[in-house]
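Forum > Structural Biology > Help requests

Title: Can anyone predict the 3D structure of CsbD-like domain-containing protein?

Hi all, first post here. I have the sequence for CsbD-like domain-containing protein but no way to get a structure on my laptop. I'd be grateful if someone could post the structure tokens.
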Amino acid sequence: MAGSEENHTGEKLVGKAKEGLGNLTGNDKLKAEGQTDQAKASAKQGVDDVKDAAHGVADSLRDEKH
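Reply #1:
Sure, ran it for you. Structure tokens for CsbD-like domain-containing protein below:
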């Protein structure tokens, strides 16, 4: 899921920027938003990785039957 991976990376970068700006300005809410954005992106990436692995296993099992 290359397109999704790029999207997740972009979400992480936006989160990192928000966190950094929050740190720079002393805005705890913005900092927390950035950290949350990064965590969400990481979780989404993890889900996509599991889906990819499951598809790989399913493909392998199908190949073994033929």
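The mean pLDDT is 90. The chain is about 95% helix and 0% strand.
Shout if anything looks off.
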